[in-house]
Amino acid sequence: MILLMTLLLGVAYPALMTLVAAVAFPHASSGSVIMKDGKAIGSELIGQKFESPKYFHSRPSAVDFQPMPSGGSNYGPTSKQLQEQVCGRHRSFIVENGLDSTTAVPNDVLFASASGVDPHISPEAALLQVTRVSRTRGYDSSGTTGIRSLVDKMTEGPQWGVFGNPRVNVLRLNLALDALELSPRQK
To answer: Would you kindly state where each structural domain of the chain is located, as residue ranges?
Structure first.
């Protein structure tokens, strides 16, 4: 019985589910890899670290965006370390983006995700980064408006219209940003 169940549930069933997933969802089952110029540059399902000021930045990661030890910090709400991290992230975000100290900063740029590799940020977090990205790329106010429109265009609604919140995939947004063609007066 153990041998039969092992073959049935440990081999046949996983093989069947893998086949069904490959046929029904080929992009997702192969890792949702994004290709550019014939090279794999990332997965739309796994967050990446963007540090350059000319790109939108992802939310913090407790595992430095390493998918193998995926996880959070597990600090509780009364943890002094968590409070220090959040205060530091708040200060850094405000300074880095040239914001007023009274600006409300979305939680997703203050707290690491539970997985440590969340590929999305909120539209509000992306919009607070527009001025920095535009300034670093040398765009004028109409270029800033173009980038703001790009964020709006790249915003995904809740899954199936009801689950979750609107979100922006940071890798896809940064790729679209690189492909954005603005007229010379906008640069």
So the answer is: 1-30, 31-186
pTM more than 0.85: no
Which sign does the torsion angle of CA 137, 143, 145, 146 carry?
negative
pLDDT in tens, 4-61: 999 999 999 999 999 999 999 988 887 788 888 888 888 888 888 888 999 999 998 8
Opening angle at CA 143, ends 141 and 149, nearest 5: 105
What's the pLDDT tens digit per position in 83-133? Answer: 999 899 999 999 999 999 899 999 999 998 888 788 999 999 999 999 999
C-beta separation of 116 from 46 below 8 A:
no
Nearest to 129 by CA among 65, 54, 45: 54
Sheet with 120-121, side-by-side order of all strands: 120-121, 167-169, 155-156
CB atoms within 10 A of CB 95: 10
Alpha-carbon span 167 to 174, nearest angstrom: 14
